[in-house]
Design a protein that fits this description.
Layout: H1 26-34, E1 64-67, E2 73-75, H2 82-90, E3 94-97, E4 103-105, E5 110-112, H3 118-124, H4 130-135, E6 142-144, E7 150-152, E8 157-158, H5 165-174, H6 178-184, H7 202-215, E9 224-225, H8 228-237, H9 250-265, H10 275-280, E10 282-290, E11 306-312, E12 315-318, E13 336-338, H11 339-343, E14 352-355, E15 360-369, E16 373-379, E17 381-383, E18 388-390, E19 394-396, E20 400-402, H12 409-412, E21 419-429, E22 436-443, E23 448-453, E24 456-460, E25 470-477, H13 482-490
Parallel strand pairs: 8-9, 12-16, 13-19
Antiparallel strand pairs: 1-2, 1-3, 3-4, 4-5, 6-7, 10-11, 10-15, 14-15, 16-25, 17-18, 20-21, 21-22, 21-25, 22-23, 23-24
């Protein structure tokens, strides 16, 4: 005969769990619930809900409560649970269920009903109305943390746990893309996503939505955020391809993140549309012809030009090779090149050489559909079997430019505007192997630029942006731009 001993640690079905009953009469419970004497022991300054919701003793994620006095997480609230033991040993009495957002007093075990806890519940799970979400396009808020630090809504530092700055810059940039922001601020937009059996991708959109709401929360207790839960979801869903303990490249991470978000939102049906592809995807025609060997005319079907249509999420811009010589005094020559020169790759005239192991091809790129948000990647790093080399060429770029001269007039006529305005500029400073990443963000509602490098946030003059070693740029098309919306709102 096997005896099964069951420990109740949650707060559902009170009648089947006599150990959870407090021993007070109904009138006494009602009075205590609204007049808890321990509310003044809550320490809001040390509360941190950014980390994974696991019990600090059992490491379980079921029925976890946060102690509002010391900020630690414990499981359950019955007499045999870790939260109950902590309340007795440490004389900490106020606990908050991280899932139901109900507050309890232990060990007396009665629910606390008090309006003074609403700010804590909002920090744990911020919510936004449709009016608040839309107003972010035009209005900005200057918020204040508990320590008196001021910050702009949506502009907060992200903690660098070890080497996740390459993830931070991508996450910060995407959180300022208006369609993504308005979609993920409302949890109901993706709460009922159905994935194929065995899929592990749902935590990705869930944690990305949580990070989006925390970043745009105007009532945060702190002026910075730790993306720990989002990074854990990235490590899990990418099967450890991207880790926050080892430096990585933002471009592969951006490509994987956008495709993974699209895959998850469409329920694994990648041909369906999603807010991700509707925002970033464009289309181009690739004209390819094979180069004949020296001394041959290249007659035959294999040398004819073939055309394929390909979607894209970002455009890669190739830098010219770095100079091999130095000036007098052993100073390196840092060349400069305008971005217009790099964009000529996609004007359907310039041909780009592409080599395979047995042949050489020439390709022309013709953009046939402009994305709402254009992502440009400047190829700075060259990797071989021995080392990674960085090209230090400075790319001169404007805050806004017109794509009309790089596309066919027939394509240009389909859009009311082909002008793109810079929204985010990701930079790399230092050597190729041990450099750091930062991002210049445009808070369009305030007309201000910010330099964000992990926890450090500083205002930036627009003239200083072009002096950086730009790596990734995100542009917003004029007809969907918040610049235009702001002008229309003022009119």
């Amino acid at each position: 005969k096997v005896e099964v001993k069951q420990e109740f640690s949650d707060d559902s079905d009170e009648e089947m769990k006599p150990q959870l009953k407090s021993g007070f009469s109904e009138s006494e419970l009602k009075y205590k619930s609204r007049n808890c004497p321990y509310l003044d022991t809550i320490q809001r300054a040390i509360l941190d809900f950014d980390f994974e919701k696991l019990c600090s003793v059992s490491l379980s994620n079921l029925n976890v409560y946060a102690c509002l006095i010391c900020g630690k997480y414990f499981q359950g609230r019955g007499r045999t649970t870790h939260a109950y033991t902590h309340s007795v040993h440490e004389n900490h009495h106020v606990f908050l269920n991280l899932k139901t957002l109900k507050a309890y007093c232990l060990p007396d075990n009665y629910e606390i009903i008090d309006a003074t806890l609403e700010d804590i519940k909002y920090v744990l799970k911020p919510t936004f109305t449709k009016e608040e979400i839309v107003s972010m396009r035009f209005a900005h808020k200057v918020c204040r943390a508990l320590d008196g630090t001021s910050y702009y809504q949506g502009i907060q530092g992200l903690n660098n746990i070890k080497a996740n700055d390459y993830m931070n810059v991508i996450l910060m940039s995407l959180c300022h893309v208006c369609p993504l922001r308005e979609f993920f601020l409302d949890e109901r937009n993706y709460d009922n996503v159905k994935l194929p059996p065995g899929s592990i991708m749902f935590p990705l959109i869930q944690r990305f939505g949580d990070l989006m709401r925390k970043l745009w929360n105007p009532r945060n207790f702190r002026s910075h955020i730790s993306p720990h839960e989002m990074l854990q979801a990235v490590v899990l869903c990418s099967k450890k391809r991207f880790q926050f303990t080892k430096q990585g490249d933002p471009i592969p991470f951006l490509s994987w993140l956008l495709n993974s978000l699209h895959y998850t939102l469409t329920g694994g049906k990648i041909k369906k549309s999603s807010v991700v592809f509707d925002t970033f995807q464009g289309k181009m025609k690739v004209h390819t012809r094979k180069v004949p060997p020296p001394g041959e005319r290249g007659v035959g079907k294999e040398y004819e030009t073939t055309t394929t249509t390909s979607p894209f999420l970002y455009l890669m811009l190739n830098l010219p090779p770095a100079p091999l010589f130095t000036e007098d005094g052993d100073h390196n020559i840092i060349p400069q090149i305008p971005i217009y020169k790099l964009l000529e790759k996609y004007n359907n005239v310039s041909e780009v050489e592409h080599k395979t192991y047995d042949a050489t091809y020439l390709r022309r790129f013709e953009i046939t559909e402009l994305p709402r948000y254009l992502v440009l990647s400047i190829k700075r790093f060259t990797e071989n079997r021995f080392f990674v080399e960085k090209n230090p060429t400075i790319v001169n770029f404007p805050v806004s430019f017109d794509m009309a001269e790089y596309i066919d007039p027939v394509v240009s006529d389909k859009y009311s505007s082909t002008e793109y305005n810079l929204l985010a500029n990701i930079c790399h400073d230092g050597k190729a192997t041990d450099g750091t990443y930062s991002v210049h963000l445009n808070l369009t509602s305030a007309g201000l630029w910010f330099d964000v490098q992990d926890l450090h946030v500083t205002k930036l003059q627009p003239q200083m942006i072009t002096l950086s070693e730009s790596y990734i740029q995100i542009y917003e098309r004029g007809d969907v731009s918040t610049y235009k919306q702001q002008e229309n709102k003022m009119e």
